[in-house]
Design goal:
Distance between the termini: 34 Å
Number of strands: 18
Number of helices: 15
Shape: elongated
Number of domains: 2
Largest sheet: 8 strands, mixed
CATH superfamily of the largest domain: Bira Bifunctional Protein, Domain 2
Helix content: 25-40%
Oligomer: single chain
Radius of gyration: 29 Å
CATH topology of the largest domain: BirA Bifunctional Protein, domain 2
CATH class of the largest domain: Alpha Beta
């Protein structure tokens, strides 16, 4: 084992000083340690796949040129083994003194873990069964100055893994699989939506009025216009403006931002799918949601029977549907609904230690009871319907009971994955709800919506009946990759400043 592989051999500063000295020495010899490009004849993965049938001890006359990072090194005197990783695949460079010659062999021996190299040579399989390239040439492409984490221990510290994802990907190759899955999920979502006749669009990330959700926004200032702008908390109101303009099916895979707390389920910057369909309803969106998630799971994982954090989850249709009132009634052991007197709901909140605000009506109190007592128990896919109008400022009121809306939230593994409803297209009702939200904001609710006069003006031109849907892509990827924290599925999650 080389000195560099022994964790206690040298400090990072000493290793870096040694490598900087090597860079200077190479340049003194006229060798540039940071080359401009390199031509390969194949990727490592291609070579591994193409020669998988090679027998132990078999050698070919096939010459290949591959490139990658040195992730392991073993020196046996006249033989040097370099393990080179290119993407997710690895191959061994079987360097022999009698093949390379003294100068080239000495050069290869002086390479460090983390260096990027190019290797040209014959494809062989050693007597011990290792697929290898027997190089006649080894070229340094980019010198690594900072040492990698010790190979056999990897990088286990989560703080460092999240801050330095580039190192995490080197030290823990399985992490790459999570992110490959993430991007396959997003690609599968786009294919599904495109096949359903939806048009992918783009809407502003900087907005004069943040809308489409109840959340605290990030604020910035545009100097040329001398006005405050807000990072969007949702693209909803702009997408619905497109329905007014005549687009019938639109969607956006969007980045949204909410200036709120961080947790294993929340990051201030996150990715969502939002979709709107003219003439659709809540039921249209329910079918769309279930079909989309099952299709994506089948395409990416090949199964609808998965495990999340040790718990079996079945995505096989049909999924359960239940009203919020029925679920809360079951939890408290008596019938309650949005029509239950506030005094009775307050007693239940007190009994179950649910914090309340004096301004809340029955709809908000019922929702708080649901979130405290029920939400975490819904492990299998469940569409929760009957959301109170009080907590649904953009959803259409139910025809039979105007105190609730035609809205659902999809719960899986005790957390929300999707929110959808029949859209509120009545500008008069919408204005009154905006005004109620504005009053809540004036009373101190930082997450309440503002009155968006331009959106109301758009609705006044006439908006078709429609269904709308939002799906949290980060949470969906967490589910499909069995990841406990949202930070595990974000390449570069937000972190507190380093001490």
């Amino acid at each position: 084992m080389t000195e560099e592989l022994r964790a206690d051999a040298r400090t990072t500063d000493e290793v870096m000083a040694g490598r900087l000295a090597k860079i200077a020495e190479l340049r003194d010899k006229g060798i540039e340690p940071f080359r401009d490009g390199f031509e390969r004849t194949a990727s490592v993965g291609d070579v591994v796949s193409r020669y998988s049938g090679l027998e132990a001890g078999e050698e070919t006359d096939d010459i290949v040129t591959v490139a990658g990072r040195i992730v392991a090194k073993r020196d046996q005197g006249k033989v040097l083994f370099l393990v080179i990783r290119d993407g997710a695949a690895e191959i061994q460079a079987f360097c022999r003194l009698n093949v390379l010659g003294d100068e080239a062999f000495s050069f290869a021996r002086d390479l460090d873990l983390g260096d990027w190299v190019g290797v040209t040579g014959r494809v062989i399989r050693t007597r011990r069964g290792e697929l290898s390239v027997s190089p006649g040439e080894v070229v340094l492409l980019s010198k690594s100055i900072r040492p990698l984490p010790e190979k056999y221990h990897g990088l286990a510290d989560t703080e460092t893994r999240y801050r330095q994802r580039y190192v995490d990907l080197i030290a823990n190759p399985e992490v790459r699989t999570v992110f490959e899955t993430r991007f396959r999920v997003i690609a599968a979502i786009r294919r599904f939506m495109d096949a359903r006749g939806f048009l992918e669009v783009e809407t502003p990330m900087l907005q004069p009025i943040p809308g489409g959700a109840t959340a605290r926004p990030f604020v910035t200032h545009h100097n040329a216009l001398d006005m405050d702008l807000y990072l969007r908390i949702a693209p909803e109101l702009y997408l619905k403006r497109l329905l007014v303009g005549g687009f019938e099916r639109v969607y956006e895979v969007n980045r949204s931002f909410r200036n709120e707390g961080m947790s294993p389920r929340h990051n201030p910057e996150f990715t969502m799918l939002e979709a709107y369909q003219a003439y659709g309803t809540m039921e249209t969106m329910r079918e769309l949601t279930e079909s989309l998630i099952t299709r994506v799971a089948e395409e990416v994982l090949g199964t609808l029977e998965i495990e999340y954090q040790g718990v079996a989850v079945s995505l096989i249709s049909p999924w359960r549907q239940a009203t919020m009132a029925d679920l809360v009634s079951e939890a408290v052991g008596g019938e309650v609904s949005v029509h239950t007197p506030v005094a009775e709901l307050l007693v239940l909140c007190d009994r179950h230690q649910v914090p309340v605000d004096p301004s809340w009506g029955p709809g908000k109190l019922l929702t708080e009871l649901f979130e405290k007592l029920v939400e975490h128990t819904l492990i299998q896919p469940t569409f929760v319907t009957g959301y109170p109008a009080e907590v649904s400022p953009l959803a259409r009121r139910n025809d039979a009971d105007p105190a609730i809306t035609d809205r659902f939230e999809l719960m899986i593994t005790g957390r929300e994955f999707a929110n959808a409803f029949s859209e509120l297209v009545d500008p008069l009702d919408q204005r009154s709800r905006f005004q109620a939200q504005a009053a809540a904001k004036d009373a101190g609710d930082d997450e309440a919506m503002w009155v968006d006069e331009d959106y109301l003006r758009a609705q006044e031109y006439g908006m078709p009946p429609a269904g709308g849907l939002g799906i949290g892509i980060d949470r969906l990827v967490m589910l499909l990759t069995d990841s406990a924290s949202i930070r595990d599925v974000l390449l570069f999650p937000h972190m507190r400043p380093e001490a």
